[in-house]
Specification:
heterodimer, A: six-stranded mixed sheet, 9 strands, B: mainly beta, four-stranded antiparallel sheet, 0% helix, globular
């Protein structure tokens, strides 16, 4: 069982917007501005999409945005495109001994 | 362009050892904390270990403490993960990654598969 809780799957049609949630506790998501989001296509390495809750690395489209409220972080993808179909993982710094915890991942299907 | 290339994965029997390497290029390697993150087949991501820029501080997930040793050679822009007493639950793709300011992994290698089986 993963430390952070994500929905197993979400779906949307091209052009639509979707939101993926990531729920933790005050020891991780709620306690620090250190939530990250990763995109992983099948057979590929993860790619950082968001760091420190809301920041996008250079090269990541502004269709990807994120926020946090209390112990829950959210990733929103607007204007869905076929290439957005992938697995998405959230992560957070944690005061537990594991340093960083990940969510179980969310499979995004673009219909 | 940042490049991280892992090597050294393969098939090993339970209780055996393996040494993973990660060759880095395209950035000032000695200025960054580095990490290993693993992913069991069909499963999610799991942080394994961190190492400070000069190698003086190392941190491990509890499940590998005492069995895995993380090291780096800044002269060779390389990381190493010595894995001993391997268990079935260590079977995964192992990624090396550049650690950002907090707990974010900014760049990842392509990964190397470790299979633990008799």
């Amino acid at each position: 069982q993963s430390a952070l809780t994500q929905p197993a799957s979400v779906s949307g049609s091209p052009g639509q917007s979707i939101t993926i949630s990531c729920t933790g506790t005050s020891s991780d998501v709620g306690g620090y501005n250190s939530v990250s989001w990763y995109q992983q296509h099948p057979g590929k390495a993860p790619k950082l999409m968001i760091y420190e809750v809301t920041n996008r690395p250079s090269g990541v489209p502004d269709r990807f945005s994120a926020s946090k409220s209390g112990n829950t972080a959210s990733l929103t993808i607007s204007g869905l495109q076929a290439e957005d179909e992938a697995d998405y993982y959230c992560s957070s710094y944690t005061t537990n001994s594991t340093f960083v915890v990940f969510g179980g991942g969310t499979k995004l299907t673009v219909l | 362009e940042v490049q991280l290339v892992e090597s050294g994965g393969g098939l090993v029997q339970p209780g055996g050892s393996l040494r993973l390497s990660c060759a880095a290029s395209g950035f000032t390697f000695s200025s960054y904390w580095m990490s290993w993150v693993r992913q069991a087949p069909g499963k999610g991501l799991e942080w394994v270990a961190n190492i400070k820029q000069d190698g003086s501080e190392k941190y491990y997930v509890d499940s590998v403490k005492g069995r895995f040793t993380f090291s780096r050679d800044n002269a060779k822009n390389s990381l190493y993960l010595q894995m001993n007493s391997l268990r079935a639950e260590d079977m995964a793709v192992y990624y090396c990654a550049v650690l950002g300011s907090y707990s974010d992994f900014h760049h990842w290698g392509q990964g190397t598969l470790v299979t633990v089986s008799s």
